[in-house]
Amino acid sequence: MKTITVNGRDVQVDVPDDMPLLWVLRDILGMTGTKYGCGIAQCGACTVHVDGDAVRACQTTIGALGNSKVTTIEGVGETPNGKKVQSAWLGKEVVQCGYCQSGQIMSATALLDHIPHPTDADIDDAMSGNLCRCGTYGRIREAIHAAATA
Ligand code: FES
Ligand code: FES
């Protein structure tokens, strides 16, 4: 049995060390806001925060977490920048099918946590690992700028 901290809450999970965090979140904890896309760190759909950094939950094993704190899309709205990003997402009507958007919001929030007023180049760099088949990139960029000045 291991204890992990997810969205500020300690939870116990009985899983092997090499199980990906994404599996634990979705299948063990029932937190399905974090999406499975590619499983090989190419699409960004599974992005969560580990100690404030955007990471791919499909490639992060539970054994590698140690005492790190995990934040998911279910909890990011409780953080100052997460709240601003979610509000800007609604304001700019970013979402189309929605599948990629949990990961996009997690990456955008981590960006603002590290660079409060990002340039277009900063945004493109930080968001380059999050793919959107619906092509919402323009509105994502607008929403990040809006969140940065909110
Ligand atoms: S599912 Fe993790 S990056 Fe695609
Ligand atoms: S909104 Fe559909 S994949 Fe991004």
Automatic annotation (TrEMBL):
It comes from the Bacteria. Residues 2-76 form the 2Fe-2S ferredoxin-type domain. InterPro entries: 2Fe-2S-bd, 2Fe-2S-bd_dom_sf, 2Fe-2S_ferredoxin-like_sf, 2Fe-2S_ferredoxin-type, 2Fe2S_fd_BS, Beta-grasp_dom_sf, Diverse_Oxidoreductases. PROSITE patterns: 2FE2S_FER_1 (PS00197), 2FE2S_FER_2 (PS51085). CDD domains: fer2. GO terms for molecular function: 2 iron, 2 sulfur cluster binding; metal ion binding; oxidoreductase activity. It holds the Pfam family Fer2_2. Keywords: 2Fe-2S, Iron, Iron-sulfur, Metal-binding, Oxidoreductase. This is (2Fe-2S)-binding protein.
